[in-house]
Amino acid sequence: MAALTFTKDNFQNEVINSSQPVLIDFWAPWCGPCRMVSPIVEEISDEASAKVKVGKINVDEQPELAQQFGVMSIPTLVVMKDGKVVNSAVGARSKSAILQMIEG
């Protein structure tokens, strides 16, 4: 299952109200490290969809969400459970590091 695209229109329903933990990838198309992380995020989405919901937020298209999370640098990865941030990291991360964030 490909990573979802989160927007301010679906954020409440897809993220805040999610019964599963949610991994959010804040990114932009012009960001080199984001392009390195993107295939890893997609891979996690494909492999772990039973235990985590995975989505991406384009900071250029969704500046309100980026601001809401205080995103200053990208990529920023955020893990939310029960509508609350439980883990976050700035910068490119390995697949194992991202999985550890999710398992928290």
CATH level 3 topology: Glutaredoxin
Shape: globular
- The CATH architecture can be given as 3-Layer(aba) Sandwich
CATH superfamily: Glutaredoxin
Segments where pLDDT lies below 50 for 5+ residues?
A: none
Q: How many angstroms does the end-to-end distance come to?
A: 22 Å
User: Number of DSSP strands?
Assistant: 5
Give the proportion of residues in helices: 25-40%
Helix/strand class: alpha/beta
Elements, N to C (H/E): EHEHEHEEH
Tell me the number of structural domains. 1
What composes the largest sheet? Answer: 5 strands, mixed
CATH top level is Alpha Beta
Strand percent estimate: 25-35%
Q: What average pLDDT do the residues reach?
A: 96
Number of helices: 4
The order of strands across the largest sheet is: 1-3-2-4-5
Family: Belongs to the thioredoxin family.
Keywords: Disulfide bond, Electron transport, Redox-active center, Transport
Active site: 31 (nucleophile), 34 (nucleophile)
GO molecular function, one term: protein-disulfide reductase activity
Characterise this structure.
By secondary structure, the chain is of the alpha/beta class. The protein has a single domain (4-103), classed as Glutaredoxin (3-Layer(aba) Sandwich). It is built from 4 helices and 5 strands. The protein has a 5-stranded mixed β-sheet. Helix 2 links the parallel strand 2 and strand 3 (53-58). The protein is globular, with a radius of gyration of 12 Å. 28% of the residues are buried. The active site is at 31 (nucleophile), 34 (nucleophile). Disulfide bonds join 31-34. One of its GO terms (molecular function) is protein-disulfide reductase activity.
